[in-house]
Amino acid sequence: MEVWPVCGCLQYLQLCFCLSLLPVQTLPLFDLAGPPVDVRVERAGKTLPIAEVPNLVAGDRLWIHPAFPADQTARYLLIVAFMRGSTNPPPDAWFTRAETWTKKVHDEGVFVVVPQGAEQAVVFLAPETGGDFSTLRSAVRGRPGSFVRASQDLNQASLDRSRLDKYLSVVRETAQNNPKDLHARSELAARSLSIKLDPKCFDRPMDEQAACLTQHSDDLVLNDGHSQSVVGAALNGSGADLIGALSSTRQAGGGVYSAYVGAIVDTARILDNLHTAQYQYIPALTSPHKEQIDVRLNNPPSFHNPKSVIVIALPPVKATTLPPLRPVERDQVECLQKESLVLPVEGAPLVFSTEFAHETVLHFDADKGQSIDLPAIADPARGGYVLDTHPLKELQLGNEVTGHLRARWGFEEFGGPLFHLRTAQPAKWSVPAEERSALIVGREDKLHLLSPSAACVDSISIRHEGKDGKDGKDEPLTWKQTKPDQIELLVPLVASQAGGLTLLVKQAGLANPDEVPLQTYAEAGHLEQFTISPGDAHGILRGTRLDEVSGLDLDGVHFTSGTLTRSDDSDQLEMNAPNAAATVRLKPGNKQTANITLKDGRTTALRTVISSVRPQLELLQKSIQPAPDSPAAIQITDANEMPQYARISFSMRSKVPEKFARNERIEIANDDGSLHASLTIADGGLTLQDQQTVLANYDPQKAFGASAFGALKVRAVSADEIAGDWQPLITLVRVPALQKVECPPNAIDACTLTGTSLFLIDSVAAAADFSDKVSVAEGFVAPSLKVPHPAADGTLFIRLRDDPTVVDRAVLPVTTARP
């Protein structure tokens, strides 16, 4: 058993932890089965199993039955206690005592009624001792706030655990039975259950994805949007410092914060403060199924003094809060004819992970005033409620109906979201006017089909007309529904000839597909214009069917075809010159003729107007000057990196035009444009060395602030706002201040690196190949970090978070820690 090896008094926890007493690895597991308890709740003459009851109210009659085996030897006293707030001790009458070893309790259970004014209900299972009932009752009455808080935390932790268990079940079952569906099903389950999903897992080989999706599982639970998560509570206030320190240790998860560490540490704090020589209190997570509450413990009960009292929280006593269930898309339209209809919903994870919502149906009205209730089953792997529509085959339904998701949330009726539903009908499909001539043979084109029946489409295929005029072979197409009345599909015509074709649109529930006749065209290339500026290495040719263009000649310069893109129903083809110098002699404003050569050997002429000159600069040299008071521990090894506290000086030569104009400016920005600065001669940021060369001095931290990082680029902008091409300048990295390394006398245990802003480190190692690296967790806030033993001269190798591709060195003083 591994233990925390340090002790410390922390004001947030209100007790002095001797952490060696708390086995960390067992805290979050809760893998020990405790004694199950059967519970039913009666309210207003209706009885429900405990799994379907999200909350209790005053007057509820509870039947509680300890489900001990017939050969149970340890005698447990069952005590049901109600509480009414942290500062108001409950009266003696709110405690019910039952001896579970008696035949009456074993066979019949006990009945208790929720008293008026109660807010929490707790079941205690205590080993029989002399004065056991009075001792426990005195503990609850003496410290009601502690038991109120423990009840609240255990309730929320149990609900969070139910979501996590359901998500892990989906991932494992899918990985075993349908591994190809793991990506889609795990994303839907994560959305349904409000679970954090790492998209990088899908970049791994298929047989490794499931393990990646379930690693650090306790850290996956997000706030469910329905109630206050224990995770949020644990991370507020000064307790965040404790959690940050614990999460960086190997025993507490190697830098990954566990949602249950916070809840369990908090509950352990409360209950540990209450132990006496006779009793200690251990928390239990609950997992209700029907009327049985399965109890899971993280510590084995003790039958020696102090004996263990198992604390089981029942649902809170409060007014019912209905789940905020909503459609994934407000305007989504579903088709009633689909055999397995899924209504995508989100916003209420407990609908998918518990039995609180029951008797769920989709209610709608058919023709002739007939009401229909289709049973609905919540399936997180499919992202919503699944309905079996087979009973609708014999019914007469209108073209459009509105379905209302209805259920019971505990004892309350629950009216969920509304859904727009359509039925499959033979439909007339139309194509937008601007796309009616868009199908060009020799390539793949995108097409849109419009119809109110779009939601009912099952498949789309294409039928080419055969050479003899008869129908040819059907080919399935890739498509998706983009709007309630619109389908988007890709039509491959690479090997086709111009002429007619037919789309076959198959709807769910209909035997025959809808036929949509279309015409394809062999489009001749249409040239619109060629745009280039003097000194540019490439220009842009616009038109249609530019895939047929092989080259262009303009004023003695030969351009070759490059990247082809399509925008606004026209093609754009990049035409590349041998180099930028080849186009310098072009004169802005001149009207010239470009000769276009097609791949089939044909040539055509195109009138061209030369655009204005775009300024072009050549980066000559750059120099980094660290600030006088900058930390010197980390040595930046890459000439293309600079720390955020340094200044940069660089020189640039004007290539186009030949002279650098005094009203020209130089802009510096990052890739996304969120950081941007301008340097001019007027503001002192630029200095002319001669008429062609300019020197620039720049302080990124002063201009962008201490949080700026990443690659910076530079370009010239002329006085009439014509911008040149961006070119890379430097990569800005933030550097932590490292102080020292303290190592134990032995060479086995890790050393401790201290400093500030250690979260700026991606990883640290003693070996240059990083074979012994230590990674720094995201959100790391501690002032020290465990690292390998450095070299004799105190050298460590550092990868900074802002640019982890570069290895830097740090030379630090090394001291020896006291044993």
Explain what this protein looks like in three dimensions.
By secondary structure, this protein is mainly beta. Helices cover 13% and strands 40% of the residues. The chain contains ten helices and 53 strands. Strands 3, 4, 5, 6, 7, 8, 9, 10, 11, 12 and 13 form an eleven-stranded mixed β-sheet that branches. Helix 3 runs antiparallel to helix 4, helix 3 runs antiparallel to helix 5 and helix 3 packs antiparallel against helix 8. The longest helix has 34 residues. The N terminus is likely disordered.
Shape: flat
Uncertain regions spanning at least 5 consecutive residues:
1-28, 227-261
Structural class of the helix and strand makeup? Answer: mainly beta
**DSSP summary: helix tally:** 10
Radius of gyration: 36 Å
User: Percent helix among the residues?
Assistant: 10-25%
Integer average pLDDT: 82
Biggest beta sheet summary:
11 strands, mixed
Note the gap between the termini. Answer: 23 Å
Strand content is 35-45%
The total strand number stands at: 53
Short description:
The protein is mainly beta and 819 residues long. Helix content is 13%, strand content 40%.
List keywords for this structure.
819 residues; 53 strands; 13% helix
SSE diagram, text form:
Layout lengths: L6 E4 L4 E4 L13 E2 L3 E7 L2 E4 L11 E6 L9 E8 L11 E5 L3 H6 L1 E4 L6 E8 L4 H11 L1 H34 L4 H12 L12 H9 L15 H5 L4 H9 L11 H14 L6 E11 L2 E6 L9 E7 L12 E2 L5 E3 L4 E7 L3 H4 L3 E9 L5 E9 L4 E5 L11 E10 L2 E11 L21 E7 L6 E9 L5 E6 L1 E6 L2 E7 L6 E9 L6 E7 L5 E6 L6 E7 L4 E6 L2 E11 L2 E7 L14 E8 L4 E7 L6 E10 L8 E2 L5 E3 L3 E10 L8 E6 L5 E4 L6 E3 L4 E6 L1 H5 L5 E8 L9 E7 L3 E7 L7 E6 L4 E5 L8 E2 L8 E4 L7 E6 L7 E4 L2 E3 L3
Parallel strand pairs: 11-13, 15-21, 38-45, 46-53
Antiparallel strand pairs: 1-2, 3-12, 4-5, 4-6, 4-12, 6-9, 7-8, 7-10, 10-13, 11-12, 14-16, 16-19, 17-18, 17-20, 18-19, 20-21, 22-26, 23-24, 23-27, 25-26, 27-28, 29-30, 30-33, 31-32, 31-34, 32-33, 34-35, 36-39, 37-52, 39-43, 40-41, 40-44, 42-43, 44-45, 46-47, 47-50, 48-49, 48-51, 51-52
Helix pairs in contact: 3-4, 3-5, 3-8
